[in-house]
Amino acid sequence: MLDEEAPLSYMQDPTQKKAMHASITSQTLLPFESLPRFRRGSVGLQLLKDSIYKALFGSLAVVQARGAPPTKRLERKPTGPKTIHFWAPTFKWGISIANVADFSKPPEKISYPQQVAVTCTGLIWSRYSTVITPKNWNLFSVNVVMAGTGIYQLARKTRHDYFSEVQEVPAKES
């Protein structure tokens, strides 16, 4: 049994203790890295990490690419923030958000041509975003939302114009 007062053998030297603390606190990826036999840079640690990543992601390519931080991996993607494939759909979300904000508008103020255009744009570009290379899931999602909001607005306008009963106010006889 270990004596509580006796320091561990790998921590007897103060410089080793400081180095161990630095390796634990700086960019610790997995909790078992603090164990002495899994010190940063050891072969055992690398094998353990690789097996965990393979189990989680099913691909060694992900394990080999994990060296870059997530922001760098996003930048390197063909639909990353350094391309138009990222920014065009991102700004297109503004149209969908504006259409959602129009849900509170009275149906009389909804425009058929505008909502038909929003719906058709959403449907056409949703299909297109799945057949182009690189596949752009941001473009797909914004267009699905755009088509959905356009269909909802058209349904509101149609229901109001053709299926609501207008109650006539009887005129006063003077």
Automatic annotation (TrEMBL):
<comment type="similarity">
    <text>Belongs to the mitochondrial pyruvate carrier (MPC) (TC 2.A.105) family.</text>
</comment>
<protein>
    <recommendedName>
        <fullName>Mitochondrial pyruvate carrier</fullName>
    </recommendedName>
</protein>
<keyword id="KW-1133">Transmembrane helix</keyword>
<keyword id="KW-0496">Mitochondrion</keyword>
<dbReference type="Pfam" id="PF03650">
    <property type="entry name" value="MPC"/>
</dbReference>
<keyword id="KW-0813">Transport</keyword>
<dbReference type="GO" id="GO:0005743">
    <property type="term" value="C:mitochondrial inner membrane"/>
</dbReference>
<keyword id="KW-0812">Transmembrane</keyword>
<comment type="function">
    <text>Mediates the uptake of pyruvate into mitochondria.</text>
</comment>
<dbReference type="InterPro" id="IPR005336">
    <property type="entry name" value="MPC"/>
</dbReference>
<keyword id="KW-0999">Mitochondrion inner membrane</keyword>
<keyword id="KW-0472">Membrane</keyword>
<dbReference type="GO" id="GO:0006850">
    <property type="term" value="P:pyruvate import into mitochondria"/>
</dbReference>
